[in-house]
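queue> holo job accepted (alpha-D-glucopyranose)
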Amino acid sequence: MNILYAASEAMPYVKSGGLGDVAGSLPLELTKIKGNKVCVILPYYGDIKNNNELNIEYVASFSVPLAWRNVYAGLFKAVHKNTGVGKNKREDLIYYFIDNDYYFAASGYGYYNDGERFAFFSKAVLEAIPFMDFSPDIIHCNDWQTGFIPLFLKAHYQSQGLYGNAKTMLTIHNIEYQGKANPDFKDEVLGVGDEWTNIITFDGCVNALKTGIVLCDKITTVSKTYSHEICHAYFAHGLENILRENSYKLTGVVNGIDDKLYNPKTDNVIKEKFSPSDLSGKDACKKHLQEKLGLEVNPDIPVVAMISRLVSHKGLDLVEYVAHELVNLGIELVVLGTGEKKYEDLFNFMAYSYPGKVSSNITFSSSLAKEIYSGSDFFLMPSKSEPCGLSQLIAMRYASIPIVRETGGLVDTVPPINPETVDGAGFTFKGYNAHDMLGAVSRAVDFYRYDKDKLKAIKKKISSYDLGWKTSAQKYMDIYSSI
Ligand code: GLC
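queue> job finished
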C-alpha cells in the first residue's frame, strides 16, 4: 500500500510534542510491512531549511491556488535509506518538505496566520503528489493542521478525476486544538464553493478539525478510551455531537514508542544499562540521579518523577494543591519541564524550601529526561485528559512505575496494580481530585517500603512490556485496508 503521512511535525526534523514522536516512529514501522511504500510530508520550516547538516534535496516548484492567490511552493526531499538486511530489510522511508518562506520561515505554531499557513500546507500536499512518482492509496492526516486535506481533495482534485483512489484518514492527537477561523476564511483562503459552508463551519467559525472529521474516510484517536471520551462534552471541546454522528468511522489505536531510542539495555545516555532480567543497573542510575540533582543519596527514599509540560491540564493544579503534603510523604520529587510561570515558580519554591528533597529543572533536555526515567522509582502523571500519553510508556520501559489518573490512554496502558496478585502496571486514581492523587502516591510509597519483592516483580514486568509500534502499525494497516 502507498501511504502518504501528512503532519505538521515529525522527528528527527521537528517536534513540539507527542505528535512529533508519533510521526517520527509510526511511518518507519509501516515501512517494515511488506508491500508498503511510505512518505512523510512536512512543512519546510526555517529550522530545518537552515540546518546544513541535513541531506535534503530540491525536487520541484509549483504554484498553489489559495482563493484569489497563487502561492509559490517548493518540494524538497530526504531519503532515509534502508540499511537493514535479511528480515530487517524494508523500503526506504522518504520525507518530503513543502517550502515557502513566507509561511514557514518560523517553525511550529502560535502565529496570527496559522490558519492560512496550514491551509496552504494542506493544499500544497495535494499539489505535490504529481512530483512524487508515487500515488497514495491513503493520505494519513494528523490533527487540525491537515484537516483541510480531505476538503481540498473532494472539492478540487477528486472532482476533476485526480487521485481517484486516494482515501483519507484523520488521526486526532488532541481535540482541544481545532484550528478555528472567521467565516470569511472560506472565501479569503480556502476558495471553496458555498455548498461546503455547512460542512466546514461549526459554532460560527470555520473549523479545520471538524472539516477533517466530517470529510475523511476514517478517524482514529491515539487510544481506545479517548475515542469514547471525545464523544462526550467533558472531553470534546464542543465537538461531541460531531464525533457521535461520525462514530461509525471512529477507532482508537494506542500509540507505541520508539523502542530502539528508549531501550535501557543499549542506552548510552544513562549511568548504567539494565534489562528486565537484571535491574541492578537501575540502582546505579538512581544513585547517580540523586547525586547529580543534589538530592539526599539514599536507596530507601522513593524518587517520584514528573516530566511534563507544566500546564494545568497535565494535572499540575492537583500537584500545586497538595505540594507540601506530597513531599511530606517522605519522597524525593524530581520535576523536568517548562510551561506556565506559576508552576515553574512553584517547583523552584519547593526546591528552595526542601533542599535535598525536591529538584526543579525548568528546562527541556532529552538526556536529563532519560536519566530521570532510569533513576526514578515512580512516574507521576495526573493528567486531566490524556489522549494517549507517551511518557508513561517510556517510564515503564525504564522500570519507573507510573502513578496516573484514569483517563484516555492512561487507562489503556496503565492497568491498576492489584496488591494481592501483583497484576497491573501502576497506581491509579479516578476522580480529578488532589487528595485522590495524594492517596495514590501514598499507596505507592507504602508499597515501596513494605512490599519490596512485589515492587521488584512489577518493575521487571513493566520494563519487559512490548511498547513498540508493531501491533498498532498492524491495526492501522487493517483500517487502511478497510477503506
Ligand atoms: C498529543 C496528546 C498525547 C499523545 C500525543 C501523541 O500530544 O496530548 O496524549 O500521546 O499527542 O499522539
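queue> Residues 22 and 444 are 30 Å apart (CA to CA).
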